[in-house]
Amino acid sequence: MATQSGNHVRGRLLRPVCAVLATAAVAGGLLAGPVAGWRAVVPMTIAVLGALAVTGWRDRVPIVPTAVVVAAASALGTVLGDPPVQRQSTGLVTLLEIGATVLLVCLVARYAAARAAAVLCGVLGVLASVVILRLQVPPTLLETAAQSAFFALGAVAAGAVGGYLRALEGRRLRSVQEARRHQRLQLARDLHDFVAHDVSAIVVLAQAAQVVGGDHPEKVLPLLSQIESAGLQALGSMDRTVQMLDDDAGTAVPAAGEGKTRAYGLPDIADVVDRFRDAGRAEVRLDLDLTPDHVERVPREVASTAHRVVVEALTNIRRHAAATPLVSVSVRPGPTAPDPVLTVSVTNSPPSITETGGLLGDGGRRGGGTGLAGLAERAGALGGSLEYGGHGDGGWRVTAVLPLG
């Protein structure tokens, strides 16, 4: 967007101005040639045209060859220049050449490749500092060096400005790359948290269909219907996760009656639990002790994180403890003073049978992606905490405490 805006400004305003100035420089050079001397006017005209060409048509005019041509013309003008015909006219022409060369130094420092910019800026700076010698050479070497050093200050300042602008652009590009990296990581985490939940349900239902298919074929059709529903849910989760890239609100779902999206929140937890209950064998207890007023007071980021904690915890139960007989999900507000919090807890009891036979529960060796670790970071960023570990004799508990302030 910024690049397109810059191109628009350059095309609509800067280029016409540069074209007018270039025409004026050529016309003025033709008029000043007989008065100021052609060996002073020609390098000035080349320097002005080169600086204006790079300023207005940087995308079409190669900056390094242009700078080389300007440097060569300036050097020849200094070495071969005649004594000024009229000191005042020649002095004005010389100052115009110095100004154009200084502008070109800034442009080279900003846009040219780093090595070429270092060499060209040095050469152009030296040439800009000695152009004034065409008018008069001081009587002593010390005075000559002092005069040249004074005029070199402009080139040094121009190079510093161009280098600073180059550094700003570099930081901007690095920031954009870091933002894209963070966005890709966030997308990966969302895919893990939501899609893995539905895909694991598909695997569990497919395994159940294999188990009952031989002895009870009439039970396969309902399982296939549930597999279809879970697959559609997984596809919807992937679509919503991609939509999240265009939504500043975070992980999003379609809002009722609207084409826009809204963030996952506390009301969606009940749907997650219901789908987990339908796809598994465990008894699932949900304690969602929240009134509509409580839901309204929970910040959007906290509600989205609470939803993700439940999704991740239930996914891990399905992966690593598929034979657990009881799962408890609790979402309750904490004390109202001094610091109100929202407490989210998901607990599963020890498996009632040994998990054998290739069920998903045997997949404990599979990597957990960024799930709990990423959620712990997210809870910490909100000022809360997330703890997980063994509970009772072989059970597991995930608990998140999220501040509401």
TrEMBL record:
Coiled-coil residue windows: none
A single GO cellular-component term on record: membrane
Keyword Mitochondrion part of the UniProt annotation: no
EC primary class: transferase
Its EC number(s): 2.7.13.3
Reaction equation(s) it catalyzes: ATP + protein L-histidine = ADP + protein N-phospho-L-histidine
InterPro entries noted in UniProt: HATPase_C_sf, Sensor_HK_TwoCompSys, Sig_transdc_His_kin_sub3_dim/P
Domain Signal transduction histidine kinase subgroup 3 dimerisation and phosphoacceptor: 184-246
Keywords in alphabetical order: ATP-binding, Kinase, Membrane, Nucleotide-binding, Phosphoprotein, Transferase, Transmembrane, Transmembrane helix, Two-component regulatory system
Cell membrane recorded as keyword: no
Protein name in UniProt: histidine kinase
Organism (species): Streptomyces poonensis
